[in-house]
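Summarise what follows for lecture notes:
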Amino acid sequence: PKEGEKPEAPATAVAAGLWVGNELVGSGLANDLQTRKQLMRAMMRKMLTYAPRTAEGQPCPKTIERGLKRWTSMIQVVSRPDSEAPLDAQAAAHALFEVQGFCSEHGFPEGLLKKIYYALYDADVINETAFAIWKDTDPDAEPTPNKLKALVQANEFLTWLDSATQESGPSDDD
């Protein structure tokens, strides 16, 4: 781009960096966990921030769900630094902390956190292990505010996820 112009954002991560909106949030896709955690948070925050609002100015769950579909490939690149590797649940859990923080900042609009968590799970962006890490992390160990309120908001989803995980349980082929 010419001086003073914003660069055009590619649709996926590239070797030179990861673009979110028109902002470079990472230089290369480093394999260290701290960088992946930061990138997951940055991507989730950008996606949530750019989502259209309702007439009352609140985040709109439907547009956030549509936005997640557009961001899925970038989130998966960061949470799976090697396409053959399993999801990095530690990094993926940080996307959930960012959703928690976003919902807290907006006063936990009714059902928003739960709908976002369902959408992340349905899109295969966040797996059961990452949700367990988010749920089990001590609120004092993670600076994201209002963990207890978030757990209440996510209770229906977490209960559903637990029962779905138990139903699919370990294989009897052993």
